[in-house]
Design goal:
Number of domains: 3
Protein name: RNA polymerase sigma-54 factor
Number of strands: 11
Number of helices: 19
Structural class: alpha+beta
Helix content: 40-55%
Distance between the termini: 90 Å
Keywords: DNA-binding, DNA-directed RNA polymerase, Nucleotidyltransferase, Sigma factor, Transcription, Transcription regulation, Transferase
Family: Belongs to the sigma-54 factor family.
Low-confidence stretches: 10-16, 62-80, 224-229
């Protein structure tokens, strides 16, 4: 027979209040997310009023995915850029298309992906528009004659061929290789290609150089939503006479104030519905004001600690980034590691050398022969420099790079780690880097 027992047990649990949960979420918001959230709250709460920010410094940067370059731009340019579809429709005015062709052209342009490729089968488009495949092909050929070169391609192979045929120089060899032996070319099987085509390794190297100068994604220059990112720093660090200064971008750290119109009503002693409403909204305003101040203070403390730990980088350049973990910063500041993680997530900093994410300053530790540690950023910098300076006729293998790191810098890593870092930097293996002239 089962016996039932009543047992009292005491447990300790961390209970996060709604206010604390929201304050934590405020910390991890990016500038855009934070400003959007404040706008939402101010729509619901008449007591919340923004303080007008100071005019921000012009630190806008246009960046491309998979690229390490930044270019300062005029902020207003982001709002007046032509889209790929509008550029094609503008150029189509010179094609003198019939009404039937315009319908096909419009369908094709609307179905282009962000790279400028036609991804739907022509037979499907023909059935959708109740026209023949031949008509689709004729209009597609006209689309492919427009700028940017390669737009309207149905594959990478076709995209490259379209661009090759536009080049002023003779590209017969390149067109032969790409049109007939594209898979071998993509695999960089040079010796096999040489045997099949009777082209020398030097000639194939020339084909590779020509193709490398073409764009595999012709529509990317117009893809503003995903490919082009106009970034503005949250924090700005300057170095002068060996000293560092930190400045906060006011647009990333917005301030609020109490709407002066409602302030007299807050001191009334009445207990009517209006007073209760204003009391509740005042508590929300007070919480938001405190959360914004806490966010500013936490991020400032975290950035100041990073500046202390990475002082050599801020004074000398990117090769001097030291190994650093979230835990080390958290312990130095007496806060939780997750708080540091939220503080750096998605945040940008303008340094004397570049615009970068805060997470850049946190890297794994790599042991060296002196029983010390070197950051993975520094190791990658050494690898990049050695590969840039190598003899391209006899490129350095991953094992040779590992050996040179040990000999020249006392850094001990395996061949597999070299390969991993090389892949992260988008650097090809030695067999592909090899040149034949």
């Amino acid at each position: 027979m089962m016996k039932l027992h009543v047992q009292q047990q005491q447990t300790v649990k961390l209970h996060l209040t709604q206010g604390l949960t929201q304050a934590i979420s405020m910390l991890q918001y990016t500038s855009a997310e934070l400003n959007s959230r404040i706008d939402e709250l101010s729509m619901e709460n008449p007591l919340i009023e923004r303080k007008e920010p100071d005019v921000p410094r012009s630190f806008y940067h246009k960046t491309k995915h998979h690229s390490h370059r930044e270019q300062t731009i005029v902020p207003e340019a982001a709002d007046h850029r032509e889209t790929l579809k509008s550029a094609l429709k503008r150029q189509a005015l010179d094609l003198h298309l019939s009404s039937r062709e315009k319908r096909i052209f419009s369908y094709l342009t609307e179905s282009l992906d962000s790279n400028g490729y036609v991804t739907e089968k022509l037979s499907f488009i023909a059935s959708e528009l109740s026209v023949s495949c031949k008509e689709i092909e004729e209009v597609l050929a006209k689309l492919q004659s427009l700028e940017p070169a390669g737009v309207g391609a149905r594959s990478l192979q076709e995209c490259i061929l379209i661009q090759l045929r536009r080049l002023p120089a003779q590209t017969d060899q390149a067109e032969l290789v790409i049109s007939r032996y594209f898979e071998l070319f993509a695999k960089k099987a040079w010796k096999e290609l040489s045997a099949i085509t009777d082209l020398s390794l030097a000639e194939l190297q020339n084909v590779q150089d020509i193709v490398a100068g073409l764009s595999p994604r012709p529509g990317a220059a117009y893809d503003h939503d995903e490919r082009d990112v106009y970034a503005e720093p949250d924090l700005i660090i300057a170095a002068e006479n060996g000293k560092l200064t930190l400045e906060l971008n006011t647009r990333s750290f917005p301030d609020i104030q109490l709407n002066a119109y409602y302030e007299p009503f807050l001191y009334r002693r009445t207990k009517d519905e209006a007073s209760s409403f204003l009391s509740e909204k005042y508590r929300q305003w007070k919480w938001l004001d405190q959360a914004l101040r806490q966010r500013r203070e936490t991020m400032t403390r975290v950035m100041n600690e990073i500046m202390i730990r990475q002082k050599d980088y801020f004074l000398n350049g990117r090769n001097d980034i030291q190994p650093l973990t979230l835990k080390e910063v958290a312990e130095a500041l007496g806060i939780h590691e997750s708080t540091v993680s939220r503080a750096v997530k998605g945040k940008m900093v303008q340094t004397p050398y570049e615009l970068c994410e805060l997470k850049r300053f946190f890297s794994a530790k790599v042991k060296d022969e002196s029983a010390g540690h070197t950051s993975s950023h520094t190791v990658k910098a050494h690898l990049r420099r050695m590969i840039e300076e190598e003899n391209k006729m006899k490129p350095l293998s991953d094992q040779k790079l590992a050996d040179l790191l040990k000999e020249a810098h006392g850094i001990v890593i395996s061949r597999r780690t070299v390969a991993k870092y090389r892949d992260q930097m988008n650097i090809l293996p030695s067999s592909v880097r090899k040149r034949y002239e």
